[in-house]
Automatic annotation (TrEMBL), chain A:
GO terms for cellular component: plasma membrane. It is a multi-pass membrane protein. It comes from Gracilinema caldarium. The chain crosses the membrane at residues 75-97, 146-167. InterPro entries: MetI-like, MetI-like_sf, Phosphate_transprt_permease. GO terms for biological process: transmembrane transport. This is ABC transporter permease subunit.
Amino acid sequence: MTQHEKFLKRLMDAAADKDISFSELCAFLRRFGFEERIRGDHHIFFRESVEEILKLVPDTLREAALALGTPRWKVVLFIVIPTVLPGLLTSIMLAVARAAGETAPLLLTSLGNTFFNFDLRRPMAAMPLQIYSYAISPYDDWHKKAWGATLLLIALVGIISGAVKYFTRRWNHESH
Amino acid sequence: MSLIKSMADIVRPHSETENSVSSREPKIQIRNLNAFYGKQHAIEDINLDIYPGLVTAIIGPSGCGKSTMIRCINRMHEVIKGAYATGEVIVDGENIYAPDADPVRIRRRIGMVFQKPNPFPTKTVYENVIAGLRLNLPKQKKSYYDEVVERSLMAAALWDEVKDKLNAPGTALSGGQQQRLCIARALAIEPEILLLDEPASALDPTATLKIEDLLFSLKEQYTIVLVTHNMQQAARASDMTAFFMAGEDHKGRLIEYGETKEIFINPKDKRTEDYISGRLG
C-alpha cells in the first residue's frame, strides 16, 4: 500500500481525528488538485475554476486558429470553449451544487417570498430558504414539506451532476 | 571540410534555380525588419527577398530568431503578449505592416504550420481540414466541402491514409499524419504562401521525409518558407537558404543568404561555414 492509500484507509476507517496529521491532510488536498497558498499560519486551499480552465487550452491551438485568419472572438467561441466544455461544465455544476446548499446569504439577498415572482427587484422565493423557514415553523405539515423539498433539492443536484458526468464522458470519449 | 562535402551530396540537384531566381520577381520583400519581445530585441535589421515557386529555408542555431522571423511574415509574432515588430514586409507589393493592414485578412492569404502538430481536438479529420473555411467564410454546400477536403488531403499526401476515417477525431492520427493534416488545413484556405516553423522537429525520420517530399511537390504552386534547425533538411528540401545567427547581444541577424547549393558548398561568411561544418551551434 502506498502512503496515500494507507492514509485514505485511515481516513475512511473514521478513526479519531488526531490520527491525521496536518501535513498529511495538506498532502491529501494537494493530491486532489487543490492549490495551496500559505499566509502566516493560514493554509488556504483552492481549486482553479472557469477562467483557469479556459487558459488550459494550449496556446498552439489558439495559434492554429489565428493563423487561419480567424478573429480572436471566433477563436474563443468556436475553438477554445468547445475544447474546454467538459471542464467548464464541471465547474458550473460544482458552482450550482454549492449555490444550492447556500441558505444564509439568501436570507439577506433573495429575502424569500411565498408567492411566485419574476421581478428581479422584489423578494424572490428560494428553495433552501423555504426549507429553512418551513423547518423552523411549529407545524407538522410544514416540516413534512421541508423534508420533501430537501429531497427534491438533493435530487436536482444529483440529476445535474449525473447529466454533466454523462455528457462530459461522452465528449471525452469522442475526442480521444 | 569532409562534412561540407557530404552536405554537397545531400543538396538536391536543382534545376536552373540560378536562372529562375534572377528572372523571378520576389513574392515577399522584407525590409529593415526588427522584432521585439517587450524590451528584448529579437531580430535586427533583416532584409530578405523570398521568391515564389521555391522553398526558402531559414537555418541557424537556437535562439537566432528564425522562428520570430517566420512569424513576422504573417503577423503571428504580435500574437504573443508584448511582442511587436517594426519595418516592412511587402507581399506582392503590399506592406503587411502598413497601419491600415488587417492582420486577420493577411493570415488568410498566408498559411502556417507549426512545430508541434496541432489539429483541433474536438474536430474530426474532415472538420479539421475545412476549419478555416467554416470559421471565416460564408457557409457552402456539402459537396463543395467534400471537394476541398479531398483536394487538400491529396495535396498534403494524406488522402489515401485517411479517406476511410474522415470522421475520426483529428487527434487520433499518428504524429506524422497529424502534421500533414495541419498542412492540409493550411492549404484548404488556398493561401499563396506557406510558412512552416520546424514542421518535422516532432516527427520520426520516415514522417520527416514524407513532409520534405510534400514540400517538393507543393513548391510549384506556393511560396514556401521553412524554418529548420536540421541542416540536412535544409540541404535536402530547399532551393534558397538564409542563415541567421545571434551575436553576443542576443540579437538575431541575417548572416548570409543565397542558393542552398552555394551556402552549403561555398559559404562566403566564416560563421556560416563554421555552423554548416558543425563547429558552431
